[in-house]
Each structure stands twice: as C-alpha cells, then as structure tokens.
Amino acid sequence: METLVGIVAAATALIGAIAAVTHRNAVVGVLFLVLNLVSLAVFYVLLSAPFIAALQVILYAGAIMVLFLFIIMLLDLRREEERESGLLQKVLSVIGGGVFFLLLWGAATGGAAPAAAELPEHFGSVESIAVALFTTYLIPFETISVLLLVAMVGAVLLTRKGGR
Amino acid sequence: MSPANVWTGSPPIDWAALFPTMVLVVGALALLLASTLRRLPMRLHGVAALAFLVLAVVASAAGWSHPRSAFDGLVVVDHFGILASAAAYLACALTVLMSLDYLDREPEIPPEYYSLLLISTAGMGLMVTSNSLVGIFLGLELLSIPLYVMAGLVRSRERSLEASMKYFLLGAFSTGFLVYGIAFLYGGSGSFSLEQLVLALDRADGQQARWLLLGLGLVLVGLAFKVGAAPFHCWVPDVYEGSPVTVASFMATGTKAAAFAALLRVMFHGFGANALAEWREALGVLAVLTMVLGNFLALGQSNLKRLIAYSSIAHAGYLLIGVVTFSTAGAESVLFYLFSYIFMTAGAFSVVALIAGTGEGGEEVGARLSDLAGLGRRRPLLAAALCLFMLSLAGIPPTGGFVAKFYLFRSAVEADLMGLAVIGLLNSVLGAFYYMKVVVTVTMRDSEGTTPVPAASPTLAYACVVFSIVGTLILGLYPRVLTRLSTQPLF
Amino acid sequence: MSLVWMLTLSTALFTVGVLGVLLRRNAIVILMAVEIMLNAANLALIAFSRHLGSADGQILAFFVMTVAAAEAAVGLAIVLAIFRLRKSVNVDSLNRMKW
C-alpha cells in the first residue's frame, strides 16, 4: 500500500514539476507546481515528517503559490510571449539535462547506503520540532524572523507608489 | 533563567557572543522606525548607522581574548570570525560614508536604505562567525535579500531594476545549489556542524564519502556564484553597472569578504587536512579561469563601474589561490587581501560616487571613461586618489594591494603551488594594463566631454575617499598592523 | 520507501529545476523553477533525516521553506516593479545589459 502511494506520488510530483516549467500559460504552470508540492507533502508523511508535510500544504502550496497566482493575474501575464526555441536547442537541452541528472544521480545513489537508523519516539512530531526550534535552533529561528521582516520591508519599498 | 533552560536544561544563553549581531539588528529596527518620521534628514540616518557599526565592532572585538563556541557552534567567537566580521563592518562603514553625500543626489532612494544595509551586514557577521551550515546558509540569505532590494531602489531607472532582477534570479539559483549541497553534507555526516563534518570525513567510506564529495561540490558552486568566480561570474558586471554606485561597492566589498570567509571556514574547518583532493584541484582550475577571464574581459571596458566589476572577478581569482593553499598562511593572506581589497575597491567606487549622478532622461552619467578624461586638470586631488586606488588594484608598491598580492603568492609558493603563483603573477601584469588605461585617461587626456561636477561637495563626501587612501597606504607601508593580529591561532 | 528512491526523485526534480532556470525566459517561471530546486533539496533533507533518525534535517527543511517564502515575496515585488516600468517580465527583454 505504502509503495503504491509512493509510486503514484512520485509520478505526480515529477509530472507537476516538468509541466510547471514547460507550460506556456503561467497560471496552469502554477497549478502544476501546486500538484508537485502536494505530492511531496505525501512523501513527507511517509517519511515521518507530519509537521513539515502540514506546513508544505498550508504555507507552500497555500500561501506562497497564491502569491504567485495573485501576481500573474494582477499583471495579466498568462500569455507572456516566449522566444520560440528551435528543435536543435530542445534536443541539446534534453541531452544536457540527462547528463546532469545521470551525474547527480550516480553520485547520490551509486553505492550501498548505510542501514536506516531506529526512529526515536515522537520523531517529527510538532512537539519535538518545537523543542528543537526553541532550544538548539533558537538563533536561526530568530534570524528567520528578521529575514521575513526585511523581505516584507523590501517588498514594500520596491512596490509602493511615490518617492521617499 | 530563560524558558529554554527550564525545558531541557540547556546551557545558559551566551549573550555576549550575540551582541555584534544584536546591535546591528536593533540599530536597523530603530532606523526603520525613525524613517517613518519623515522630517529627519537622511544624513542623520547615516550617522546613526555609523554609530551602530562602531558599537558592533567594539562588541565583536570584546571577544578577542575569550575564543569560544556558543549555541552548539552556531555562533563561534574566534579570531578568524572577529577579523572577517570586522572586514564586513568596514565594508559597510565605507559604504555608509560614501552614501552620506550620494543619497542627496539620488532622491529616489528612501531612508530605509540604511536599515537594509545594517541588516545585510548583520547577515555577513552571522555568516562568518558560524561553525554550522545552518548559520552559514541563513547568514547568506540575510545578507542577500536586502541586497536584492537595494540594487533596485532607483525604481525609475530601468537598469537599476534589471540589476535587481538579475541579482535576485541568480542569487536564488545559487541558493538552490547551496541548500542541495548542505542536504548531501548532512546525509554524509549526520549533522550540520563543520566539526562533525571533519569527523565524518575520517570514517566515511563508500556512499557516505560520495555524498560528502557531491555536497561539497554543490556548496562550492553556490558560494562561487556569490564571490563571482568564473564560470559563475556572468551576472557581476551587469549588476554592478546597474545598481546604485554605493550598493555596487557594498556588493563588491562586503559580500565578497563574507563569502570568502565562509568558504575558507568550510574548507579549512569543515574539511581540514582531509580536504577532498578532487575539489581542491577543481578550485585551482576555477582560480586560474577566474583570473584570466576577469582580466581579459576588463581590457575592453569603457565604463569604470564595469571595469571595476571585471577587476573584482579577477581579484576573486587571486583570492581563490589563497583558499587552494589549505594552509594557515594562505588563510591569513586571504584575510589581509580582503582588507586591502575593501579599501581600494570602496575607494575607487567612492570616487565614482562623487562624480556620477543622474543625467538627462534619468540615466546615470559620469562613470564612463570618456567622462573621466581630463579629470586630473579639473579635479586634481580626486584624480590623484583614483590613480592611487588603480595602482593599488594593479598591485604596485607602496600600496596595500602590492603587499596583499605578495603575501598571497608567497603562501602559494610555500604550499608548493608554484604554477598557480606564476599564473597569478602573470595575470597581475595583464591587469596592470587596464588599470593604467584609467590612470592615463585621467591624467593625460584633455577634457572635451561634459563631466558633471557634483554640486557643492561638502567635506563629508570626501570622508570615504580619504579613509580609503589612509587604509590603502597604511596596509602598504605598515602591514604589521594587521599581520600581527593573526599570530595567534586563527580558528 | 527506500532512501535510494527518494534521492532518485530528488535529483530528478533538481534537474528539472536547473533546466527550468536555464532555459525559460519568463521571470516568474524561473522563480517557480527555483522553488522546485528548493523542494528537491527539502525532499533530500527529509529523506536523510528519516534515514539517520535525527530531526535536524526537518528543521532545516522548515528554514528553507521560510527562506523560499521571503525570496518569493522579494522576487515578485521586483517583478511587479519591472512590469510597471516596462509592461513585460521577460528576462530576454532585459537585454539593455547583456544577459
């Protein structure tokens, strides 16, 4: 059962990603990206990371993708003209991508991986993540808050009307 | 006692290790609040930013006699970190100094500019004082995101927004590589700590070793983008040319210093004597490629900002030699080089900031070499300063640039990298050509063009030029002021 | 699900993301391709985290997600500002400076 779910999710994740970067209509592209993100959330559940899976759906597939859609609709970019790439370029890029993938894949999975470790109790639960965030990772957590603030200020500065 | 201690009995928070970052962040927030009070003059913001920087330097230097590791290595207080963050603070201070006057002539840049600058500097400080890949990653993001915004602050100028877009897209792309690399380093070592990485390298075999190799390669690609090393350099000239001069200067000096410091820490501390030979060789090739490309492409440039951009690529190549040496002497020479590079590059940019301005049609004028023709006759002191920075960039005594190159190539020879040292030397000669072109243009040619002379430049505007001259000369004549600081163990 | 399969999917997604960045010219699509790269990294992190039995990987995945949110906010703001000035978001038409 788990294997079946995994195979289906892997297929949809891959299809979603490929369609997201190749589709000419950006709105459809974003929707395919959402498909990709939700499929990945399935894997996070299978990999004992329920909290990250929930965030993936709420924050990533929800909030961030809505932001993308919002901008595309606001600017009416659905049919942004693209330069037509020739057949040769398409073939070359597929070959290049294939070589890149094989190199990466070979290095990542070539040998026998060490055996999986036993999972501690409550692994990946909200509680265990929260404790780690507020103890070991307190400084990065605070850094993230500054980062979000500065991103917000920056976005306002770049888009507000008028000068100083 | 903080709540964290109550929960898990973790050690008390080492506030002192955090002070430099906290001073900068709090300062940025205070300036952000102040910028809502519209009547405050811009210069006041700048002066306040300088004050916060001075406080941060003091807070950082206070840890000199007590090297330690706080928060499980997420923040370390060591000599290397203190010197590297001092370089970042210096780059920021010089940027603020040159902004004081420049912002008066770029009315579109809002006062929040200084907050973004301080936050970015805090990110640099975090990045160079972290022994954890998490800290390096978040520091890099904290330094980059404000810079993406700052590059595009002159919103009515297409080039500025294009620079912002280009810097953002390539920055985000490189972040992808960095994070992917960190994921594989984590897979190979089971931790984000650089210290654990060393241990893991000793016992790694088979697949784990392969993950570490792959992870390091991807991290190197991510950082190579940030330092502008070939073949990941293509964004540098466009971004430097399009951004406001002061922002370009900060990118060239601050970002480069922070990224190189982080690179050194990852290579020396994380991989130590076990540095994977494969990537060491690759770095050597990268160094040669970067020097040659940067110098050759700089030869044909007619815009001073673009010329400095290509020269900064070439300097990234020289600096990579120091990383490849894998010796303490190499690390020290890179630090020295960074300091002298910051002085001379910020100096050159500050001269551009003094003569560049917004011309007709909102485009930037004054940075073309033809605009500089005859500057020596009209503004002799400014022209002399520019010539000094060019001589230093070319590596001619008695400037800091010469001493820096000397230390760097000496460390390469000591590390049995004769080939790299020779190639570096030949490249310095090549580089001297285009630096001399600037000197000749400034001093020899009669003025025909219409160089815009800045309206009423008060003494403040020259502060950055003077400071950079002093720095360049002191490092050239008395290099011991800096070198004696690194007699103690660096890491 | 074995680690090898997860890493295979992760490397495939990363490749798709890299190709997307290099080949597409629409700034928003490039940003989407970067998101795919970051997600490939997150998948690898969480797979390793499960494999090693340490929660650290999940924490970094959390941070990566937040960073992606911050980057998306700034990136889309830049897109918006450029569009106002020029009515296009194609990187090709950024050719006033060579790409």
Could you explain the architecture of this structure?
The complex is a heterotrimer of chains A (164), B (491) and C (99). Chain A is an all-alpha fold and 164 residues long. Helices cover 74% and strands 0% of the residues of chain A. Chain A has six helices and no strands. Chain A is globular, with a radius of gyration of 20 Å. Chain B has 491 residues and is an all-alpha fold. Chain B has a two-stranded antiparallel ribbon. A two-stranded antiparallel ribbon of chain B has the order 3-4. In chain B, β1 and β2 form a beta hairpin. The radius of gyration of chain B is 22 Å and the shape is globular. Chain B starts with a helix and ends in an 8-residue tail after the last helix. Chain C has one domain: Orthogonal Bundle (Helix Hairpins), CATH 1.10.287.3510. The longest helix of chain C is centred in the C-terminal third of the chain and has 31 residues. By secondary structure, chain C is mainly alpha-helical. Classes of the chains: A mainly alpha (164), B mainly alpha (491), C mainly alpha (99). Chains in contact: A-B, A-C, B-C. Chains A and B meet through α4 and α6 of A and α1, α2, α5, α6 and α9 of B.
Quick recap:
Chain B has helices at residues 3-8, 15-34, 42-61, 79-105, 112-128, 133-151, 158-189, 194-203, 206-227, 235-242, 245-270, 277-299, 304-325, 328-355, 369-372, 375-378, 380-394, 400-414, 418-443, 459-477, 480-483; strands at 68-70, 75-77, 357-358, 364-365. By secondary structure, chain B is mostly helical. Chain C is mainly alpha-helical and 99 residues long.
